[in-house]
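Side project, low priority. Logging it here so it doesn't get lost.
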Amino acid sequence: MIIDADSHIAPTGGEFALEKHLERMERAGIDKTLTWLKPDYEGEGIEGHNRYVYDAMQQYPGKILGFGWADPTVGVEHAKTMVKVCTEEYGMYGVKLNGAQNHYHIDDPDLAMPVIEEIAKTGRLLAFHIGPDAYERTHPLRARKIARLYPEMKILMVHMGMTNWEMNQAVVEVAEECPNMFLIGSATDPKAIMHAIHKLGADRVCFGSDAPFRRPHVVKAVYDALLKYEATEAEKALVMGGNVARLFNL
C-alpha cells in the first residue's frame, strides 16, 4: 500500500481541486493520501477549507485521509474550536499547525500552546511544518519542547527541514531524543531522507510528496530509486505507507 503523507487540496480549485488531486494519485499509483488544506483562506475562511477536506473524506473514504488545520492567528478560541470540529465532528486523524504560513512560533505560549493542549486532549496526532522558510518559528528545538511535554502524543515533522542540511540534522537529533516524533520526507533532499532512515530506522520516516507543489509521480520515483539499493523490501514498505497505516490504525 502506497500512502502519500503530505498533500493539499482547497476549495479555491485549480491545481488544488479534489479532481486534480485524484488524477495525480492515479498517475503516481498512490493508494491513499494524508490530506490537509492549502492556507489560501482569510480569517475564518479556514472553516470552509477544513470542510472541503472533510467532504473529500466522505466522498473517497478509502483514499483521502483527512487531517485538520488550526490557525491561532485567527483567534486562539477559534483555533481550539477548529480542533474540536476537525477531530470530533469530522473524525480527522489529527490537526496541523503551520507557523511558517500562518506566521507564529510553534511554541508561542499565548498562541500555539493552548491549541496544542487542545489537540493533546483529543488523543489524535499533531503535525508541524518544519522548514527554513520560517527557520526560527518552526525550528525542531521548539517542537522538542512540545514532544517532551506531551510524550503520549504522536507528532509528525512535515518536511523535516526541507533542503536545509543543518535543519535536517537538527530534526533527526531531536527525533532521536523524542520517540513520539515521526518524520515526513516531503520537499526535502534524498540525502536527508536516508540520513533520517539510517539514524532513526525505517519505522520513523514517511514518504510524502507535498502535492501539488511537487509532482507525486516524480517524488515517488525518487523514493523508489533511493530505497532500491539502500533499504530492504520490508523497510521500503514501512516508509512508503506502512508507517502511516500503523499511526492511523488503518
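Brief comment: Strands lie at 3-9, 32-37, 64-66, 68-69, 94-97, 125-129, 155-158, 181-185, 205-207.
Revisit when time allows.
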